[in-house]
Amino acid sequence: MAQINDPQTIRRLLTTPGRWAVVGLSKNPLRPAVDVSYFLQQDLGHEIIPVSLKGDDVHGATGYKTLAEVPGSIDVVDCFVNSTKVGAVVDEAIAVGAKAVWLQLGVVDEEAAQRALQAGLDVVMDTCPKIEAARIGL
């Protein structure tokens, strides 16, 4: 059975090129999502898809207001939202057929993580792709 924060899953998600919808990514340079999404795009070679309330375009990528608006498949939904709001994002990720959800450092919702696991998604919670990439030597 799949588990949360499985080291092999983390390595696979970071090293397999994919489409990462970054929820909470806006043009605000003070937000961590800007730096982390740039790392995902430029250093790890993932396609990023900004998703925010305004639908800002970021790092040359077209932005959207919801996951449902994103054309095509989504491999990972990277969640830069408050823990109290992430459950709705996880539910939307399940609804659009995403393959994984990544809840950023400090973002914890055990019930949402269990819903994602039960729906067959990979789940990473309460950590950052940059931290995990450094930890495994990427």
| CATH-derived topology | Rossmann fold
Overall average pLDDT: 96
Radius of gyration: 13 Å
Which spans of ≥5 residues are poorly predicted at pLDDT below 50?
none
Number of domains: 1
Distance between the termini: 27 Å
The CATH architecture designation is 3-Layer(aba) Sandwich
The CATH H-level superfamily is: NAD(P)-binding Rossmann-like Domain
CATH class: Alpha Beta
Please give the number of β-strands. 5
Strand order of the largest sheet: 2-1-3-4-5
The shape is globular
Number of helices: 5
- Share of β-strand residues: 15-25%
Instruction: Give, in order, the helices and strands.
Output: HEHEEHEHEH
Structural classification: alpha/beta
The major beta sheet can be summarized as: 5 strands, parallel
Secondary structure: helix percent: 25-40%
Short description:
By secondary structure, the chain is of the alpha/beta class. The chain has five helices and five strands; from the N terminus they run H-E-H-E-E-H-E-H-E-H.
